[in-house]
Structure to design on (258 residues):
C-alpha cells in the first residue's frame, strides 16, 4: 500500500531547460505516485518531449532535478549540493526507466525476441537464456508470442510498437514513459496499442504518457497534466481537467483536439 511516506515514483523539482535563449521548460514541478497513470497534454512545441527526456536524463536541466523513487537522477547530494554522477551510473539509473518512442526505435537487424531480450543481457541482469524466457513471456503479454522469430520490418506499426512496449517492460522499470506512442500509426492500428497500455495501467504499472488521445486519457489517467509554453497550466483528475478546465488555454487546446 502506498502512503505519503513512500517516495514518489517520479518527482520533478523546479526544472528549467533552455536551448540557447529559448526557454523550453519554465519551472516544472510534477509528482507521480507509484502505480499512478499520468497523461500529459499540450500543444506541439510546448515542451512535452523535453520533459520526458529530462525525466530520463537524456537532457540535463539547467536548473532543478528529477528523482526516481526518491533517488536524484544524474546527480547526487554532496554536502547540500548536487554533483554530476558518472555516465555509467546514469546508464544504470536510466535502465530503471522504460521509454517508448513515437517511432518504435526497434533494432532492425535483431529478431523480435532479441529486441526484447537484448537490454537485460547487456545490463547483465539476466543470462541470455533467462532473458529469452522473459522475452517470450512479455511477447505473450502484448499478444505477439507467434512473432518471436520475425524481424521488425515484417511487422505492422502497431505490432512494432507492442514489441517496443515488451522491450521497455523487460528491464522491470519502476516507471514507463510514453512519447506519443500511437501518433505514427495508421488509425486502425491505434486501438491495439492503447489496449496494451491500458492493460499495464490497470495492473498497477506507473506510467507517464504524452498523447493526444483524449478518450484514452479519460479512461486510464489518474491525473491529466496540461502543459503550455514550458509551464504546467493545470492538472487534476480527468473529469476536472477535461470536462471543466479552469484555464482559457486548456479550453482552447481541448476544443482543437476533441
Ligand atoms: P513537444 O514535445 O511538446 O512538441 P518539445 O519538447 O519537442 O515539444 O520541444 C519544445 C521546444 O523546444 C520546441 O520549440 C522545439 O523546437 C525546441 N527544441 C526541442 N529540442 C531541441 C533541441 N535539441 N535544440 C533546440 N531546440 C529544441
Ligand atoms: Mg513531442
Amino acid at each position: 500500500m502506498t502512503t505519503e511516506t513512500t517516495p514518489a515514483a517520479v518527482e520533478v523539482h523546479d526544472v528549467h531547460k533552455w536551448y540557447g535563449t529559448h526557454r523550453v521548460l519554465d519551472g516544472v514541478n510534477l509528482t507521480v505516485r507509484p502505480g499512478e497513470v499520468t497523461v500529459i497534454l499540450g500543444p506541439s512545441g510546448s515542451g512535452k518531449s523535453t520533459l520526458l527526456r529530462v525525466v530520463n536524463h537524456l537532457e540535463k536541466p539547467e536548473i532543478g532535478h528529477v528523482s526516481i523513487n526518491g533517488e536524484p537522477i544524474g546527480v547526487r547530494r554532496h554536502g547540500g549540493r548536487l554533483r554530476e554522477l558518472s555516465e555509467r551510473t546514469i546508464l544504470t539509473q536510466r535502465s530503471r526507466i522504460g521509454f517508448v518512442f513515437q517511432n518504435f526505435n526497434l533494432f532492425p537487424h535483431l529478431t523480435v525476441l532479441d529486441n526484447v531480450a537484448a537490454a537485460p543481457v547487456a545490463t547483465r541482469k539476466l543470462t541470455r537464456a533467462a532473458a529469452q524466457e522473459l522475452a517470450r513471456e512479455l511477447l505473450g503479454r502484448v499478444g505477439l508470442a507467434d512473432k518471436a522469430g520475425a524481424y521488425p520490418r515484417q511487422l505492422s506499426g502497431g505490432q512494432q510498437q507492442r514489441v517496443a512496449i515488451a522491450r521497455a517492460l523487460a528491464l522491470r522499470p519502476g516507471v514507463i514513459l510514453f512519447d506519443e506512442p500511437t501518433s505514427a500509426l495508421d488509425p486502425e492500428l491505434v486501438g491495439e496499442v492503447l489496449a496494451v497500455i491500458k492493460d499495464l495501467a490497470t495492473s498497477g504499472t506507473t506510467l507517464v504518457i504524452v498523447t493526444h488521445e483524449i478518450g484514452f486519457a479519460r479512461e486510464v489517467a489518474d491525473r491529466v497534466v496540461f502543459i503550455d509554453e514550458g509551464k504546467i497550466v493545470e492538472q487534476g483528475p480527468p473529469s476536472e481537467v477535461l470536462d471543466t478546465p479552469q484555464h482559457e488555454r486548456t479550453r482552447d487546446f481541448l476544443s482543437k483536439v476533441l
